[in-house]
Amino acid sequence: MRQVTVTEHLLLHQTQTPDASGKFTALFYDLILAAKTISKTMNKAGLLDILGATGEINVQGEQVQKLDAYANRVLIHRMERTGVLCAIASEENADFIRIPEQLQKGEYILIFDPLDGSSNVDVNVNVGTIFSILRRKSPSNNDVTLGDILQSGVEQVAAGYFLYGPSTMLVYSTGDGVHGFTLDPSVGEFLLSHPDLRIPEQGKVYSVNEGYYKYWDDATREAVEYFKGDENPLGKPYSARYIGSLVADFHRGLLNGGIYMYPADCRNPGKAKGKLRYLCEASPLAYLAEQAGGAATEGTTRILELQPEELHERVPLFIGSKNDVEAVATIYKKHR
Ligand code: AHG
Ligand code: MN
Ligand code: MN
Ligand code: MN
Fold this sequence. Notes:
Blueprint: H1 6-13, H2 21-42, E1 53-57, E2 63-65, H3 66-80, E3 85-90, E4 97-98, E5 108-116, E6 127-135, H4 146-149, E7 158-164, E8 168-173, E9 178-184, E10 189-197, E11 205-207, H5 218-228, E12 239-240, H6 246-256, E13 259-262, H7 278-291, E14 295-297, E15 317-320, H8 322-335
Parallel strand pairs: 3-5, 11-12, 11-13
Antiparallel strand pairs: 1-2, 3-4, 5-6, 6-7, 7-8, 8-9, 9-10, 13-15, 14-15
Helix pairs in contact: 1-2, 2-3, 5-8
């Protein structure tokens, strides 16, 4: 296959920002450099003192893994200096970060989950970095505000993820389809390996943590039973796959079809809207899902149409093959 680099592909496929190709390319260049740094460390994490927890609890109420903190530091340091951002928001930081006075700023906002699936990192299971790119709404000469960050998913100009697995991949969209790149470590370049990814309309796999069954409401139980029974287009139960890293479970669905679900938990007030964060997990992946012909809802409403009110707002997530997400919506509509 002819080698196509990310930079070349970006210049060919930019629809959202035709006027700012240089800025966008600079942003992706630094994001890729940060991801390559994280990937290199990840590949030998067992030999470094970088596994396990830091002992801190983050704003999410989660045990911070050393690699969460490491990936977060690498991304913030690199992206503060990319010259085209006015703000950064991370799953690991309680507040958003304004680009320091002495560094060059721009119009874009970068939101990321620096390490998704970090509970898996000590057992060497796929993890990833999820990112979302917005353009500021307030005038450039004003201070960037939280309102600039709290935007609906439809406002995204790009989104994607890095997947640290048997190979390191970059999957992204700038509004012109979804494209996958694989890192060739021998040359240090991400090269096009999965052009124009499309999610199969009908899946054969469902992905949910069934350990929480007793915390689900009737609609959620009925939705999960739909995939475990015969009353579905397959006429038989779907296969169950749950890696525990959203980015890996999503990637499987992007390529092979199926549905990933993280429902609301009707017993635990802290998870009344599920566990996943809107801005750095649900919104970017919903953008990719729709760009690849799939769907993403919180049960009945499109994820991309929701308006976040808080930086770390959580949202239930049903994402993947169009038919499967629509089947869940039909069940939820019956109960609402
Ligand atoms: P993160 O590691 O960024 O906090 O995200 C973890 C998320 C997601 O990656 C995964 O699908 C889900 O949490 C697993 O949650 P449960 O362990 O509750 O199933
Ligand atoms: Mn976390
Ligand atoms: Mn995550
Ligand atoms: Mn994370």
